[in-house]
Amino acid sequence: MRRGTGAIAGLAAVAAALGTAELVAGVFERAPSLVIAVGDVVIDSVPGWLERAAIATLGRADKPVLIGGILLISVLLGAALGVLARRRFLPSAAGFVAFAALGVAAALTDPRTTFLGALLVGAVGAAVGVGVLHLLIRAARADRSAGAAAPPAAVPAGGARPGRVRRSRRTGAASWSWPAVRPRSPSWPGWGLPALRAGAAGELRAAIRLPAPFRRAAPVTAGADLDIPGLTPLVTPNEEFYRIDTALRVPVVEPDGWQLEVRGMVDEPFTLTYAELLELPQIEADITLACVSNEVGGDLVGNARWQGVPLRALLERAGLQEGATQLLGRSVDGFTAGFPVLTALDVEEAMVAVAMNGEPLPAEHGFPARLVVPGLYGYVSATKWLSAIELTGWDVDGYWIPRGWAKEGPIKTQARIDVPRAGGTVSAAERQVIAGVAWAPTRGIEGVEVRIDDGPWRPAELAERLDVDCWRQWYLPWDATPGRHVIAARATDGLGEVQTDERTPVAPDGASGYPVVEVEVEA
């Protein structure tokens, strides 16, 4: 048997193993995806600098690239085991079992995973992989033996004799078809079933009737949302809102079984069901969230109208003990993020959010509940798929802190240039506009200035303020002259702090510097 034949057999076997394992994971609710489990372990194990580099380089594509890498390694290993199986089948079979065991071990690091569920997925996947490999190797050997033993026969004009093995004139190699099991595409069946569960969760979301908040956000007026082509809209649609988190697969949480614990250094810990959370008095606010990995001028920032229960009300109900200086949010998938308790008490619009832009939270943005805290980067505050609010001392670190990020993460005052696009071309024959957004949640934006080439800073026109926690649009009419121009912008917040020109990387506490775009103006 040729090496290529063994490699193809290994590829088919590993595809069948992974596909079956994912199918089992999709059918049984507590059974884990081994591919996702390995990816989670990779995320938790890589050095902080590598994780930062991946986010900076890949942005929102970091998760698909990681999954693709795991699948690529899997099929390469499968091909290698297939080559080995040509001569030594038992060691190759042991390799399939070993890889399944590694996947099970990875899955068991997730507290939501049951041992029996992980064992079931791993055992079935390994058994199918070994079985398919055995069938394909045996079929290849049998076909080769049959071809070698067959006596020469005259071939009638017009093609090969029925029932005979066709042999290549050049190589003498047999040409035959694989059995019914073939390599599958990377879209494994099991990934579709969690998607079906997510679809069912979407139906549950659609049936939820949100309570009216006792304090509504201000209405969006034409003066707050400027009609400028290319300018970022005031409110980011849910489907366009950036998503950066550690979850390779979005947790599907059924609201009927969900609970929120308020515990730790409190006098009266308590637990809320989803229905009880919805019954509590709620507020509505326009809040801009930003990822600490957002480069200057980047798009990992968005603005939405959030609705939820004020954190202050929950903390007052629990009663804080002396030394409770940090609020640590815990997610159903084990992620943690912590920030000062004083922020939760002082920032009026810090909340346990249940709605985003007028509808229950989308699954990828934290359904059924998440934390939204104005003024803080998400890595210290924006716990999605919230399961617990734990009051701790400041010595307890959230997920990202040991990975090289600062303990505190206030959002820096920033402006971004949306129009004209960097590297674009505009015409000098008509008046142009320079426009963008600026944000400084909890402080607000009081001014934006624009500089063209080495000219003076010129004040831009600001849209009406919607909320101090919400970004503001801005624009500046521009009589562009032919040639290449460099445009910079800077914002001033409500405390009089001017955006710094000091260029710093995203680590450890967010990038800084002026956004700069170059544009070509044609005559």
Which features characterize this protein?
5-stranded antiparallel sheet, single chain, 11 helices, 5-stranded mixed sheet, OxRdtase_Mopterin-bd_sf, Sulfite Oxidase, Chain A, domain 2, 523 residues, alpha+beta, 3 domains, 21 strands, Immunoglobulin-like, membrane, Molybdopterin-dependent oxidoreductase, globular
Which regions contain 5 or more consecutive residues with pLDDT less than 50?
A: 152-196
Estimated radius of gyration: 29 Å
Helix content: 25-40%
Mean pLDDT value: 87
| CATH fourth-tier homologous superfamily of the largest domain | Oxidoreductase, molybdopterin-binding domain
Shape: globular
Structural class: alpha+beta
CATH-assigned fold name of the largest domain:
Sulfite Oxidase, Chain A, domain 2
Strand order within the widest beta sheet: 4-3-12-7-8
Secondary structure tally: strands: 21
How far apart the termini lie comes to 69 Å
**Any idea how many domains?**
3
Note the main sheet.
Answer: 5 strands, mixed
CATH C-level of the largest domain: Alpha Beta
CATH A-level architecture of the largest domain: Alpha-Beta Complex
Strand content: 15-25%
Number of DSSP helical runs: 11
